[in-house]
Hints:
single chain, alpha+beta, 3 domains, 3-stranded antiparallel sheet, 63% helix
Amino acid sequence: MKINKNFYIIILLFSIIFCSSSKKTKKIEQTQIDEIQLGEQVNSIYMVVGKKAITKIEMERMTKLVGFISKVENRKINSEDFLIEMLIIEQIAEQESIIVNEERVNNEIEKRRIAANLKTVDEFKNILEKETGLPFDLWKDVLRYQLLKQLIIQIQISVPQPTDKEIEDFYNKHRKDIGIEVLYREIVFPKTYTIQDEKNIYEIVKSTYNQIQSNPNGFAEIAKNLKENVSPYKAGGGIRLWTPIVDIAREDQAVAGALFQLPVGSISPIFKNQSGQYVILKIEGKRPIPLEKVQELIRSRLYYDKAEEAFQNWLEQKKRNLIIKKIA
């Protein structure tokens, strides 16, 4: 039987294509195997904690977080201990059906943004990354860990409340660090927007300042009657009652700086506040912030310290019941 010549050509072409395809497939498979082996080398198991294997990549991630956590919680920790701590917390959270989802984390971020008086989350994110040195996604991991930890302390750990004696002792020991509050008077002049207005208002500022210098005891009367005084405390002779310096600094750092340096009874030089308005101050009194004003803050601080100590004791007990094996 005669076989068509074209048939041999087709068979030959098919064989060539098949062989080429087979070799190419083998090459791709070998490449994939090489990549998998390389991945296993890079992300090999570093440690086994209970039933959970920790990879080298996870350890590198923890190393970035540890420095930040150490500052936030004021305690020395290393990457291994911190990762073990996180795994224990995750395990207990799962057992107790404690969930801190993305919505819960975002709600907490929103609270902190509002407390920081920032307009947008992006602004909060940029400032946070600049101050902490952490990428925002890593910081969110830290936040989630802290929220889980707080919930576990509430559910699993008994924390004694600070006593009044402990609060008083802390106040007496740290009185200088707690800060001071001031009683002062102010005259605030209108903000100007033209060169001519600036010249005009400065002439009034200088005249007022000279009048005060010649009669410091007349500050209250001048502040009350000066029509250019736009201070919200004008009706009371410019008096602002006892206020912590730190609270004033949140409003205006220039004013807080001037009050911090001034001796009691003295008049400030003429200066501009953060809004660009001329200001004259008279400081009437300075004193440490009284215990009653900071009692609840101290109580919270002491409770936090007690909670951290109780948590560490609880954590050590949990670790004793875990098999922890370091591979590399």
